[in-house]
Specification:
Blueprint lengths: L6 H19 L4 H12 L3 H29 L2 H25 L4 H8 L4 H13 L2 H14 L6 H26 L6 H26 L1
Helix pairs in contact: 1-8, 2-6, 2-8, 3-6, 3-7, 3-8, 4-9, 5-9, 7-8
């Protein structure tokens, strides 16, 4: 018989979802590095954050409603996403490394090559949907949510809260750090760091896919 979860149960599920989400999402990965760079470039940051938040919301709740079944129905889907992700991350690592090796590369790119809103949104979507870690995190959230039975949507809401908090922190952090990036050396360090992160993620994914 259907029963409605009590308020304490809902709050417990929400708090658990928030803690789980922070543990999963609050890392400097591919999506986070992309958002930081967009913020430092002042290039459509709000649109990028809004898209990432929307994608997180859609897939967090979709996972609770049964997205895990897709992996069973289409076993090839996981491998396809993994290798698309490897190629995408490797390409971005190469671009970041090229900017880092040029004395003025990152600063010139930030001043003169601000991407269009469409390009920024496509980049945000790519770093989200072509990242196998994103799908793994979503599946984990969906699996854990079902242990809360009638409060599973509260757990999902908590995970979404964590996502929004992390995205807001990235956006605010990039704006606070912006004055430091008038120095081209700071851009070289950032691009070099991003190149290392992206290359490491690509290698790790490729290793896991073999």
């Amino acid at each position: 018989m259907f029963s409605v979860a009590t308020l304490p149960t809902l709050l417990t599920a929400w708090a658990s979802g928030t803690a789980t989400g922070l543990g999963l999402f609050a890392v400097v990965g591919a999506q986070s590095a992309f958002i930081l760079r967009q913020g430092l470039m002042r290039a459509h940051l709000f649109s990028v954050l809004a898209l990432c938040a929307t994608l997180d919301a859609v897939f967090i709740f979709a996972s609770v409603w049964g997205l895990q079944a897709l992996a069973t129905w289409f076993p090839w889907l996981t491998q396809a996403i993994l290798w698309f992700g490897v190629a995408f991350l490797a390409w971005y690592a190469l671009q970041s490394a090229r900017r880092a090796l040029r004395p003025q590369g990152g600063l010139v790119a930030a001043r003169a090559a601000v991407p269009s809103r469409r390009a920024a949104l496509l980049g945000a979507a790519g770093f989200t949907l072509l990242n196998p870690h994103f799908w793994l995190d979503i599946m984990v959230v969906g699996s854990l949510a079902h242990s809360f039975d009638q409060a599973r949507l509260a757990f999902a809401a908590g995970a979404l809260t964590a996502s929004l908090v992390w995205l807001a922190a990235l956006g605010l952090g990039s704006r606070l750090l912006a004055p430091w990036f008038a120095n081209p050396r700071a851009w070289r360090v950032l691009d070099g760091s991003i190149a290392v992160i992206m290359a490491a993620l690509a290698l790790r994914l490729a290793y896991n896919g073999l």
